[in-house]
Amino acid sequence: MGRAVPAVIRALDILELFLDGETLTAPEITGRLGLPRTTVHELVHTLADRNYLSTAPDRPGHYRLGMRVFQLGGVFAGQLDLAREGQAVASDVAARCDETVHVAVLEGTEVVYVSKVDSTQPVRMVSAVGRRLPAHCTAVGKMLLAMLPAEALAARYPGRTPLAAMTPNSITSVAALKKHLATVRDAGVAYERCESNDAVACVAAPVRDHEGEVVAAMSISVPVLRWDEERAEQLTRVVRDGAAALSTRLGHR
Asked: Is residue 163 part of a domain?
């Protein structure tokens, strides 16, 4: 491995001070990083000259992130591939729990699985990338529906038309679904027990992109013969960690 360049490290340390959206003066940067004043002034001047920092028009002497950072971030966001990143993180999650892991997106009132890693155990859920299921019958679907604005949810489920059932445990009324989604929204995690498959339970957590928007959900699916309260608590932690890791790979802070 090559040697880290101290001047580059210091410049990056300065840029990372602005990740919370603050504007800072050169003396404030000096105080936070404990660097020599002349070093900070030289680095800040260089970063501003290259448009990585810019002066705040309404606060003389204060700096903020510049246009070049925005341009680089846009290129990075354009290169992200949810399915590819999801597959990589799902593999890590599956290795940790040895259960089937999915990443899914919402399309209308259905979920579409975009990534999947199977359990190695002989009894496991059978599914496939590209498969569609009614969102209200799945943990990933309920997680994604719960994060929609009220008007967007109402547009997907107008009136009081009964919802299709996949098993006797499926939610079949819009009113019951909306009540359930309120609990999912509060908990930040969704569960499904034999609602899309008589023999499977699932837990799901939301995945966010670089703008903080929920763009997908990750789930762990388990045969009910391996599902109990202790296992549910354990897998809830695992899927939260996995969804957070995928969110980080998509640029979420």
From this structure: yes
Whether residues 72 and 84 share a domain: the answer is: no
| 240 class by beta-carbon count within 10 Å (0-12 exposed, 13-18 middle, 19+ buried) | middle
**CA–CA distance, 20 with 241 (Å, rounded to integer):** 23
The whole-model pTM stands at 0.71
Whether the Cβ atoms of residue 189 and residue 143 lie closer than 8 Å to each other = yes
Task: Summarize pLDDT for 219-246 with one digit per residue, the tens.
Answer: 999 999 889 999 999 999 999 999 999 9
Neighbours of 117 (CB within 10 A): 20
CA distances from 99 to 56, 121, 125, 163, 181 (A): 51, 8, 8, 29, 25
Does the residue 102 lie in any domain? yes
Cα pseudo-dihedral 44, 209, 212, 89, rounded to 10: -100
